[in-house]
Amino acid sequence: MNPERRSPAAEPAADPASGPSGSRAATLHDVALQAGVSLATASRVLNGSERKVAEGFRERVERAAEALGYTPNVSAQATARGRSPVIALLVADIADPYFGQIAAGVARGADEHGLVVTISITERDPDREQRILRALRGQRPQGLILAASRADLASSPGTSPVELEAFERYGGRVVAFGEGQEVGEGRTARSVVLDNGGGAEELGRRMAALGYRTAIGIGAASGVRTSDDRLGGFARGFESGGGRMDRILRGDFRRESGAAAMTEALTEGVEPGTLVFAMSDVVALGAISAIREAGREIGADIAVCGFDDVPASGDVTPALTTVRLPLNEAGYQAFRAIVDDDWIQAALPIEVVVRASTPGLVQGR
Amino acid sequence: MNPERRSPAAEPAADPASGPSGSRAATLHDVALQAGVSLATASRVLNGSERKVAEGFRERVERAAEALGYTPNVSAQATARGRSPVIALLVADIADPYFGQIAAGVARGADEHGLVVTISITERDPDREQRILRALRGQRPQGLILAASRADLASSPGTSPVELEAFERYGGRVVAFGEGQEVGEGRTARSVVLDNGGGAEELGRRMAALGYRTAIGIGAASGVRTSDDRLGGFARGFESGGGRMDRILRGDFRRESGAAAMTEALTEGVEPGTLVFAMSDVVALGAISAIREAGREIGADIAVCGFDDVPASGDVTPALTTVRLPLNEAGYQAFRAIVDDDWIQAALPIEVVVRASTPGLVQGR
DNA sequence: TTGAAAGCGCTAACAG
DNA sequence: CTGTTAGCGCTTTCAA
């Protein structure tokens, strides 16, 4: 006889008054015992999919579970089933509203499916990302969502694809923001694509149409995909409308970076009527503060536009012209891409939002 | 003989070229086999804490693990060890910058300790929170951080404490934002307290000193702790300085709510020189937009102040007077409260930040 | 239908 | 120091 590995759950197992710690959580075993059924039966009524348990037993088990406050141990279920209910989300910085909204979308989807989302912060550091990916693999997540645009995930022939391949090998699905993420052997991950290039191009055209002829770009380091796409798209559109990109300043995705870049530009000199295009609203907000500090005016003097349409963009004065991205929806799509076998990539609507920070120029030039 | 439960890992187990799915991840067993050592030894060098493996074996194991791309299965480790490496974070809305910053702080701490953070969204719905708590228990997290201020978690003698008690019973630690969260049997959870009342009181005093005499408050439903504390504190300070709270409008924590409340107030009439205190910056921003839309001016006409000092508050024009909270640090503290046995509650610095949205009144009244 | 028993991948006594 | 061998809590054949 061996089922008595521990003391029988007969009495104290469910006693809520036992010490804060030390006591243990009720197990399936406890429930089965209390209900007078086998482990298998208890498992079937509580967690098994196909129902085929006599009503009488089912009731007793449910009652017992209720009485004991039983909750299945997710880790144990995961080891036994060979798959865990987690979706791992990788973002650069969860405090950044851009990622915050994406995360909200992912969480919404996961919640609908009873999955848990785990979140990791890369801080845009490739090494860090690498380590995280490795550790994440240990969770054997059903899906991995890469929302953290790293410099060259796709182009680096190095380690990353290998790491991602490992996920797919055991059946985990990798979804990336932005097209073309390799996952080894020439295969690419499913991807949620926000048409950064297209949106920026349209923005550039609109700005040119407004009469702007000279623009300064503020981006991240060259090679950072998102930034490159936006800057490139903007230049294309702006130039097609007769404008010219005067120069491009480099920094990162933080507000301070935008302020620093702008300060630098102002030092070198910025003519009235110039337009500043920052590749993200957060950076644009930083640029705006720098412009103000330099005693210049936003709008007629120096116009500014950004990208993302984070909530704050509508609140500043003058309100920021930008490109609206359906970030929450994008996060949700990423989630669907993981759970739907027949998922097909849907285009996400992007929209240019012209506001007061880029007033129309009365006279050209 | 039974160790050959599966086909020996001798050949294809590690073949990176095998199909995307279908193949399985390398197990400790595979590593041990390849290294020619026992499972126990492999476990010791790879995951065991106390080192006591001969250099030769250690190397062989490490080499094998490397070659196979082995990563320990977290779920299996969790079941075997009886504790899982997860910290569960409960927030109302991850897209809200308030929670985003807290989450960043928690993630920072977790990362330092190799723990994974799991995030759940309550949407401030008590039932939802209840369900989530229940499901979360299944993860047997080492810690549970309640950052989602629910209406009356603490005061409701109902279900919640019971649910939380379950966590503590098996050794999980519960940390709450805000004091006095019960976890059953009269015990309270460790708490990270942001002195909402004190900060608001100081703000109220400062506003009174600036010459304001009449204020309108915008809060969440009565009973919501955070909101009550802030509103109450502000009233105390403001009145101590000779001001008077004219009325309090109710809504929730969203921007639109602030706009709606303010619109209502404006309909009823708001005299020039009135100060509006919104219990959160996000709500204040909504109020500001409503004031503008009504054709009134922020500052000299209707002054506005908020609470939190989210990044956007410094970017709006006029910049918003508010109370700065060290949210990232608070999140980090919450994490420490979980992992440090001898954690002691540290006071978090709160600071009133007076900006242009509340210019000094030249003449009293 | 139900239950016995063999796993899932890993850890942790306990002997050698 | 190393290997054997029970577990951890749950799922899932496979007979009965």
Could you outline the blueprint of secondary structure elements for this entry?
Two copies of one chain form a homodimer.
Chain A: H1 28-35, H2 39-46, H3 55-68, H4 74-81, E1 86-91, H5 97-112, E2 116-121, H6 126-137, E3 143-146, H7 159-169, E4 173-177, E5 190-192, H8 196-209, E6 214-220, H9 225-240, E7 244-251, H10 255-268, E8 274-278, H11 281-293, E9 302-305, H12 311-315, E10 322-324, H13 327-339, E11 351-353
Parallel strand pairs in A: 1-2, 1-3, 3-4, 4-5, 6-7, 6-8, 8-9
Antiparallel strand pairs in A: 10-11
Helix pairs in contact in A: 1-2, 1-3, 2-3, 5-13, 6-7, 8-9, 10-11
Chain B binds a DNA duplex (16 and 16 nucleotides) through helix 2 and helix 4.
Structure report:
Chains A, B: Residues 26-81 form the HTH lacI-type domain. Chains A, B: Residues 1-24 are annotated as: Disordered. Chains A, B: Residues 9-24 have a biased composition (Low complexity). Chains A, B: Keywords: DNA-binding, Transcription, Transcription regulation. The structure is a homodimer of 365-residue chains. In chain A, 42% of the residues lie in helices and 15% in strands. The first copy, chain A, is α/β, with parallel strands linked by helices and 365 residues long. The first copy, chain A, folds into three domains: 3-79, 434 Repressor (Amino-terminal Domain) (Orthogonal Bundle), CATH 1.10.260.40; 82-192, Response regulator (Rossmann fold), CATH 3.40.50.2300; 196-324 and 349-353, Response regulator (Rossmann fold, 3-Layer(aba) Sandwich). In chain A, the strands form three sheets. In chain A, strands 2-1-3-4-5 form a five-stranded parallel beta sheet, sandwiched between helices. Chain A has a four-stranded parallel beta sheet with strand order 7-6-8-9, sandwiched between helices. In chain A, strands 10-11 form a two-stranded antiparallel ribbon. In chain A, helix 11 (281-293) links the parallel strand 8 (274-278) and strand 9 (302-305). In chain A, helix 2 packs across helix 3 (55-68) and helix 10 (255-268) crosses helix 11. The first copy, chain A, is elongated and about 85 Å long. Chain A starts with 27 loop residues before the first helix and ends in a 12-residue tail after the last strand. At the A-B interface, helix 4, helix 5, strand 2, helix 6 and helix 7 of A face helix 4, helix 5, strand 2, helix 6 and helix 7 of B. Strand 2 of chain A pairs antiparallel with strand 2 of chain B. Chain B binds a DNA duplex (16 and 16 nucleotides) through residues 2, 5, 27-29, 37-41, 43-44, 47-48, 52-54, 57, 72-73, 75-82.
